[in-house]
Structure formats: C-alpha cells, structure tokens
Amino acid sequence: MKLKTIVLSVLGIVLLGGVVWGVRMGIKEEGDIKKVEVTTANTASSSSTKQGGDLSGITYSLIPKATSTALADLPKGVAIPSLNRTVTIPRDFDAKTATEARQNIEKLSKLLTENPANGSWWGALGMARKGIEDYEGAKEAYAYALKLQPKNAVFADNLGVLYSDYLKDPQNAERYFLSALELEPQVSYRYLRLYSFYTDVQKDSVKAKALLERGLKLIPGEPTLTSLLES
Fold first, then answer.
1. What percent of the chain is modeled with pLDDT above 90?
2. CB 110 within 8 A of CB 46
3. Burial annotation 64-92 (CB, 10 A radius, 16+ → b, else e)
4. Which long-range contacts (CB under 8 A, 24 or more apart) does 131-134 make?
5. Are residues 3 and 199 in contact, defined by beta-carbon separation less than 8 angstroms?
6. CB 83 within 8 A of CB 112
7. Per-residue pLDDT at 19
8. What CA–CA distance (Å, rounded) separates 66 from 209?
9. 142, 194, 215, 218: which could join 177 in a potential S-S bond, CB 3.0 to 4.6 Å?
C-alpha cells in the first residue's frame, strides 16, 4: 500500500503539471485528452505560418513541432494511416463536446491530407482519437508520428499507455515504455510510469526493483526512486 501511495502521489503531481501545461485541450495526462475542449487560442501560430493550414481552434501546447513537412521525409515502406477513418463519438459525450471533438479530428485530418509528414499533427490526431475512445485509430496515428519523429519520447510513452491500459497488450506496452525511457533516460517520470506498469500490470517486483536501481544510477539520489527502492 505504501509503495502504491508513493507512486500515485508522484504521478498525480506530474499529471497535474500536464493539466496546467495543456489546459486548453483539456489534457488529463501527458499527451492525452479525455474530452477535447477546443478553444480559439492559437498557441501554435508559428506552425500555422511555417507549415500551412488553418490552426484556429486547435492548440498543440503538449506536442513538439514537426522538424519537417517535406514529402521526401515520409518513412519509406510505411503506409500513411487512412485519414478517412470513421469518427464515432461515445454516447456519454454531451452535444457540445461531441461537436468539438468531431471538428477537431476533421481539421487535423484536413491538415494532414495537405502535409502528411507533419509528426506533430499526427500526434495531435492520436490524442484526439484517444479522446473519443478510438484506441485503434489513436495507435495508428501515434505510431506514424513516432515513425516521423523517432526520438519523441512522448509518442512512445503514449503508445505504451494505449497498449497497457486500453489494448491490453503488455508485451508492446513494455516495448514502448522502454523506448521512451531510452530516449529520456534522465527523466524520473519515465521510470515511474514503467515502475507502475511492472507493479500494477505485470506484478513483477524483480523488474520493478531493477528499474529503480537503473534509474538511480543515472539520476543519483532522486528522492522518489530512492523512497520506492527503500520501501
């Protein structure tokens, strides 16, 4: 119980930061939205001027900008996910939220039709698809975003969450959590995310302990990792 309390407390602090950071899109956790809350604030104005397309009503404060939109940068041998995927809104969404969610996905799909090499917009589409509980659609969008931006730990982490919590595929979940950790080995939150997966999903205390020890070698004295290991 003590271990779980520590992890939940720390993750709660991290996720609270994510809410403040991404409040304009109703983000409830890193890279994630439950219900899209579109505003007219244009926090991605630089992307609008450089990469084309109308971004009014869409914010991307959590998603890094794409480094390139050249068609030549599309990953070779990887099919572009369909942008005509059906948009099915959950019945428990109120009318306003449902309309905004649909419009958000339609705008992103239009932008990606014009600029399919924009990893940032694929990541935003992944968030929007997950927000309407279309987990397969979210997986496709995040996976393609990661192909375009293979060093983006957020995309890898989001895939880990999808596979772990929604698609119930622990093997792929671990693979993506580890990938995110390798991309950001000195970010303590990455260890906590994977630690929670090992303890809550896989029930593997050996892997959990080894992970904490690995983290403390790279982040000596990190208080949360230290507390968990001592407990």
1. 65
2. no
3. bebeebeeeeeeeeeeebebebebebeee
4. 131/26, 131/32, 131/33, 131/34, 131/35, 131/36, 131/101, 132/36, 132/87, 132/88, 132/89, 132/90, 132/93, 132/101, 132/105, 133/90, 134/85, 134/87, 134/88
5. yes
6. yes
7. 31
8. 36
9. 194
